[in-house]
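U., I forgot to send this yesterday:
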Amino acid sequence: MLHELALGGSIHHERSENGKIRSIICYTREGNVLSDCTLGVFQRLHKRRFIQSRDGKPYRASRLGIKAVRAQLNQR
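Result:
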């Protein structure tokens, strides 16, 4: 999931009344939805500061997250 975010994808989130994130949907830069994107994976990436959101916008890969991604065939 982090590889797709590093290529320009985003995570759109919905918050509950108490302000906590209750659901997420991950999109690639082409607009496809990632099926392996779960709340648990999102929380791990957020805890490690690999993703960030600014001004309530969708979450995207941070500089640290982009540096943590190893090169794969679709990134070369």
